[in-house]
Amino acid sequence: MPFSVEFFPPKDEAAEARLWRAVRTFERLGPAFVSMTYGAGGSTRDRTVRITGQLAAQTTLLPVAHLTAVNHSIEELRALVGAYADQGITNILALRGDPPGNPLGEWTKHPDGVEYAEQLVRLIDDLGDFHVGVASFPEGHHRAIDLDHDTRTLVDKLRAGAEYSITQMFFDVDDYLRLRDRVARADPEQGNKPVIPGIMPITSLASVRRMTELSGSVIPPDVQERFAAAAGDGPEEDREAVRAVGIDFATEIAERLIAEGAPCLHFCSLNFAKATSEVLERLGVDMTSVLPVASAAR
Ligand SMILES: Cc1cc2nc3c(=O)[nH]c(=O)nc-3n(C[C@H](O)[C@H](O)[C@H](O)COP(=O)(O)OP(=O)(O)OC[C@H]3O[C@@H](n4cnc5c(N)ncnc54)[C@H](O)[C@@H]3O)c2cc1C
């Protein structure tokens, strides 16, 4: 089963060392691609560009660079795409991005920038031979008027030249299947393009609460109960128990997605390899090459 992995730009040297440990582990597992998110501030943006370049130059991995329209003029966006091309990076995930500071706050376009991701897709396509992906939202984007509007947005981005979409993480596989059906109904041709499901193996309740607050996603009550039972009612959540349920839950979601013909599983790794590797192992991915004992014996 093809899988891919999402990283984010690390904040300091220790975090960068951790990222590279995860990168080297995943490298041995053979993901279809790895992607690097793009933040809101100047220094994190520089790190995205630098590390994505290093992934292209120093690993066997295929990097996909996320790029957002936040606080960028069209000229700057063009320069960034050019900087990626100079490093041999031709895969870009074109996103509008969220308002810095408060993702659910008011969106303001840069005066010389673009308003929607669809325009960014066209801008990148016009600059050369790039492979562009976009974001999709199984529960609908929190700013979309309704699911029809959300579907139209996605179809427009695909018609503009995007070759695939990667979904926001979700908790109910039916939401993913309904999204796929909506796109296929709205435009059968665009519906043939891969909708790659985003999966995050949950290892702590606090982090998942934060992620859902930021994205506006909803955790279904039965899933909430399952994690709450694992967390216990002590002053601190039982991290081991939550992690175990998180790995089980991600594996169950992945198994159903594979059965439903998902084209690839995209794991939000949070720059750790362990949880995702455990899910992949349960899915039957050959892990022998990542075990030090096995590699030493070869
Ligand atoms: C897989 C994935 C990766 C992500 N990576 C990053 C990242 O690296 N950095 C980051 O900052 N954020 C990232 N995000 C978050 C993303 O930037 C936000 O969710 C953002 O709010 C929406 O981006 P978009 O590209 O879908 O925007 P768009 O497709 O432009 O949509 C934004 C809103 O505008 C509406 N809209 C679009 N077109 C029109 C139109 N013509 N008329 C009226 N309304 C319209 C849409 O319905 C939607 O509500 C990611 C999201 C996903 C799913």
What does the model show?
There is one protein chain. Residues 293-298 have low confidence and may be disordered. The chain has a nine-stranded parallel β-sheet. Helix content is 49%, strand content 13%. The protein has a single domain, classed as Alpha-Beta Barrel (TIM Barrel), CATH 3.20.20. With 298 residues, it is of the alpha/beta class. The chain is built from twelve helices and nine strands. The structure holds flavin-adenine dinucleotide (FAD).
Which descriptors apply to this entry?
298 residues; alpha/beta; TIM Barrel; disordered C terminus; binds flavin-adenine dinucleotide
Ions and ligands = flavin-adenine dinucleotide
Number of domains: 1
* Rg, nearest Å: 19 Å
- Class derived from helix and strand content: alpha/beta
**What is the CATH architecture descriptor?**
Alpha-Beta Barrel
Oligomer: single chain
Q: Into which percent range does the helicity of residues fall?
A: 40-55%
Shape: globular
How much β-strand is present in the residues?
5-15%
* Major sheet: arrangement of strands: 7-6-5-4-3-2-1-9-8
For the termini, the CA-CA separation is 25 Å
The low-confidence runs, each spanning 5 or more residues with pLDDT under 50, are 293-298
Total helix count?
Answer: 12
CATH topology: TIM Barrel
CATH class: Alpha Beta
The overall average pLDDT, rounded, is 93
Which sheet architecture does the biggest sheet show? 9 strands, parallel
